[in-house]
Amino acid sequence: MRWLALIKLGYRVAVVVDNDVAVDPNAAQAFLDAGGHWVTWQPGRSLEVELFMSLAAEGAWQLLERAIALNTRETVEAQIQSFSQNQISLDGIELENLDAGMLPASCELLGRIAHKKGWFKTQSIYEDIGREIVGPHFHAADEAFRQRIHGLFAWSYAA
Predict the structure, then answer these.
(1) How far apart are CA 21 and CA 8, in angstroms?
(2) What gap in Å lies between CA 150 and CA 22, rounded to an integer?
(3) What percent of the chain has pLDDT over 70?
(4) Which helix (H) or strand (E) holds 136?
(5) Percentage helix, strand, coil for the chain under 3-state DSSP, each rounded to 5
């Protein structure tokens, strides 16, 4: 409960919480009651799933390309096959993308793998993704995602 100490010191505190694992509702309410600002992704989504599912096709595609660049094509292919129980391949996702864009099921799968395997799990990588992928594709992202990000920016500017 580090947030409580920060709030008692007079700091404004916000948390951005993955929504793929239940949070103790009492702790969340205590945080809100103390004046904290709470942002969470859509139900059942980690940040990685939220990004793959919320960005338009080109943004999701660029996330996959970044994962390949960071982890090797062979590693990403093996992880896709493992997580899908050999039902989906990287080649299949690439063909799907060429045809009509990645299907929601593929985006969800890629997000789950990215989350579990830590494809983007450093601050510098996320800064790059935000600047180079999310930012340029933000205008075409899912409305719920845009509202959450706008809300976070509005909170930060209200200081």
Answers:
(1) 28
(2) 24
(3) 99
(4) helix 135-137
(5) 70, 5, 25
Tokens, residue 103: 């299907």
Residue-wise DSSP of 101-139: S--HHHHHHHHHHHHHHTTT-SHHHHHHHIIIIIHHHGG
**pTM, full prediction:** 0.91
41 three-state secondary structure: coil
What value does the CA radius of gyration of the chain take, rounded to a whole number of Å?
17
Structure tokens at 42: 């859509």
Same domain, 56 and 72: yes
**What are phi and psi for residue 123, nearest 5 degrees?**
-60, -40
Task: Please report whether residue 80 resides in a domain.
Answer: yes
Secondary structure (3-state) at 121: coil
Same domain for 85 and 12, yes or no, is no
Residue type, 37: H
| The total number of structural domains that make up the chain | 2
Q: Which domain holds residue 26?
A: 2-40
41-69 residue pLDDT tens? 999 999 999 999 999 999 999 999 999 99
Report yes or no: 63 and 55 within 8 Å, Cβ to Cβ.
yes
